[in-house]
Design goal:
The protein is an alpha/beta fold. It contains 5 helices and 5 strands, in the order E-H-E-H-E-H-E-H-H-E. It has a 5-stranded mixed beta sheet with strand order 2-1-3-4-5. Helix 3 links the parallel strand 3 and strand 4. The radius of gyration is 13 Å and the shape is globular. The N and C termini lie far apart (29 Å).
Length: 110
């Protein structure tokens, strides 16, 4: 079964998911890249086994991030706001794995 489960990070774009996986050495975190700012219902259904979902969309998609978190449910979804696109935080701004994990703990409840 390849569906995400447990603690999951949802990012906008498959390339961002690949960059994030290469920078985060935590096998217990599932990382899912979705095409665009509004994933399909089929994609959302695949997140059914996730305990906690950290929603990290691009900075221009704040409204969509909150809508997505509400759709996923307040008990498990958190919106994480970063100072830029998640991949740029690592590749251009030298964010460390520790800083990223710390940012997850500041995710806001719907």
């Amino acid at each position: 079964d390849n569906d995400p489960h447990g603690e999951t990070i949802l990012v906008e774009g498959e390339i961002k998911a690949i960059v994030l996986r290469s920078k985060i050495d935590r096998a217990d975190l599932c990382i899912v890249g979705v095409p665009g700012k509004t994933p399909s219902q089929k994609t959302l259904d695949k997140l059914g086994q996730c305990d906690r979902i950290h929603v990290i969309l691009d900075p221009d998609a704040t409204r969509q991030a909150w809508e997505l978190a509400r759709t996923l449910g307040a008990k498990r979804a958190r919106v994480v706001m970063l100072p830029g696109k998640v991949d740029d935080c690592f590749t251009m701004h030298d964010m460390t794995e520790g800083q990223f994990i710390s940012a997850l703990s500041f995710g806001r409840v719907v």
